[in-house]
Amino acid sequence: MDTQILSGKVVSASVYKGLKSRIVKLKTNSITPCLAVVLIGDDAPSHVYVKNKTKKFASLNLNSETIKLTNETSENALLEIINNLNNDNKYHGILVQLPLPNHINNETIINAIDPKKDVDGFNPVNLGRLAAGRPSFIPCTPKGIMRVFEYYKIDLSNKHVVVVGRSNIVGRPISILTSLKRKYSNATTTICHSGTKNISYFTKQADIVILALGSPEYLKGNDIKEGAVVIDVGINRVKSQTKTGYKLLGDCEFSSINGKASCISPVPGGIGPMTIAMLVENTIEAAEKSANFAL
Ligand code: GUN
Questions:
Q1: Is pTM beyond 0.85 here?
Q2: Is 14 a domain residue?
Q3: Which end of the chain is more exposed for a tag (fewer CB within 10 A), N or C?
Q4: Which atom of ligand 1 is closest in space to residue 275's alpha carbon?
Q5: Would 72 be classed as within a structural domain?
Q6: Per residue in 40-65, pLDDT tens?
């Protein structure tokens, strides 16, 4: 079977095109959406992700400021910075790049971000709204996956979606989104995780498999049924003889999935660009809400 590539580059380009008029309207009203990014420590992938995010904001003439902090920053110092960002009208969105150093409690920090500026959608208020079926800010990666389904007209209604991974960043919210009673959703969703005995028993039954576990080339062709849709959210750095010293691998083995799946989102160039596009969209939405704009 010919496997179609689901290109996040193509879908995100159409998202940016659609956002143009909203940016113009905000700017006409003297508002330039502005994102504050807090980056702590020297985790190399986090530095790359943040650079890619802020580069995109600059290319769209949107504002972003990165606050770089050392690994030794205390939880209290970080809470004070977030409090200042919450109270400064200049910033419409706040993003604290994860993972945080071990001495800082993720939950305490995420809880401190004003839900109105929580463009990551990680604050329990926003996750709760999503779980209740009345979302405000939706986490960027799951939101981006749903946009890929819409763009390629992959309707999940009456389909079996199997999600592998239960993080608050991807697995949990995508399991909620895919099962909401909404256009392109309405799926029967199963969520597998480290407590699941035989994950391939479930993935073999899936019409759509969504992988977000962070294990390079975990899913093989033998683990899916012919014609399944595979969404690969994994971005795993694996040592290689390249100039950078590493290459990026997804959570699925492309070579054995290709030819068996009907569609696959590749790594890189699949879901990654969608995460950034949805961050831009959420920041624009935050700016619009701050100005009480009707959409
Ligand atoms: N670390 C990995 N993905 C993300 C994300 O989407 N947002 C933040 N803040 N940190 C991350």
A1: yes
A2: no
A3: C
A4: 6
A5: yes
A6: 999 999 999 999 999 999 999 999 99
